[in-house]
Known about the structure:
Blueprint: H1 13-47, H2 51-79, H3 81-101, H4 105-128, H5 139-167, H6 171-175, H7 177-191, H8 208-229, H9 234-256, H10 270-300, H11 305-333, H12 336-356, H13 363-370, H14 372-381, H15 384-390, H16 398-424, H17 433-457, H18 463-470, H19 472-475
Amino acid sequence: MSAPDAAPEAAGREAWLAVGVTTLVFFLSVIDVSAVNVAFPSIREDFGVSDTTLAWIISGYNITVAALLMVAGRYADSLGRKRLFIPGVMVFAVGSMLSGLAPNAAALIAARVVQGVGGAIIAPTALAVVLPAFPVNKRSTVIGLAGATGALGAVVGPAVGAFVTDVWSWRGIFLLNVPLCLIVLFLAPRLLQESKNPAATGRVDLLGVPIGTVGVGLVMFAIVRSEAVGLGDPRIWALTVAGLALIVVLVRRSAHHREPLIELDLFRHRSFASTNLGVAFYAMAFTSGFLINSLLLQELWDQSLPTTGKALVLSPLVAAIISPFAGRLADRIGHRWILAGGSLLCAAGYVSYALLLDGSPMVFSRFVPLSVPIGIGIGATIATWASAGLADVDPARFGTSNAMIRTTQQVCYALGISIAVAIISSGSGDTDIANYRLAWWFVAGAYTVSAVVIAFTFPAGSSSERSAAADPAVAS
């Protein structure tokens, strides 16, 4: 059935069970990414390939997801969220199985691309397919639970990857997804309700689809390649310019096309426009910050993998605990100060790293305690970004709007990592504490800009209050 014109007053038991089904897939995708990093040495030993080739196991997945997110979100709203979510889980399961059975590195990279296609479909539909069943004042809570699940996946991913690789094989990291996806495929048709944009015709700008896909793909490819060849390489700039040119063409087409790939009028919502700008800087800081800390522990401080895992686990664990409460609070008071305050807490944590850490290992005496404010800040923000962007959007366009926000995140995640790698590898080498301090200042600066953007541009109050102010009938 089509999405209702008005949000429901309450959500039933089946709606909450549906949330459990969709977040299970989200949990799997997060675990998969974080667990694969731990398995790199075993994969290298099995296939006898270079680190550059191994990097494409991650990059192939990320580029595919970023390139297809907008297309998947637009078709989800047009054709139906449930109609796309279930095939997306199927593709993800097939990609996981092929990854686990891959006979060589090339086959593994190709299988990860297949997995990325499934991930691109799942990302915008997993929330969009369940949110219409909830009233406006409960949606941030639902997204907060999804965020907590993602943070928990980041916590257990490295541990699961290490355990499965040790007792079985790195192949088990992928193969374990298959039975869990089958459970989701059994439950989803029974629990999920179909919803879509009731005004959709089922058609999308067929020329805009390849333009947008190739444009975002080229930008992502350029960013990922820059980690190996450097940001100053002319090929990187050529790819970036070509990708941005295609995106400009897509924006111009979308402004005049009857069925655009990008629905530009979404940016008329201050909350949506502010979220996209703020999350761009936040995403640059988020993934690069974790990478910098992992490199610090393993390369500069020469810590073992188990010690590194223990040192990095506290921040995501705190985030997983905080995230559901942040969602509930955002439902009550609004998103502005939760996002701004959380981002500033993250910035403060990285400033403390830059000021209080040096080349001598201080893992549990300083590093771990200093990570607590970052965990609180991430818990307040990581899922709140998604609910902020969707706060004032018509439920009929949840898929499209969620996909656009996630595309911004994916591209800026990669950009932040590329910048961090460039900073750390500059100067006197990978083990120079001065380079790490400069990288921490970059992360703190990006978090601070994100906080300032939200504080000055995001609308005040909760989405329910803004809805009531816009429509007096809602208040009565």
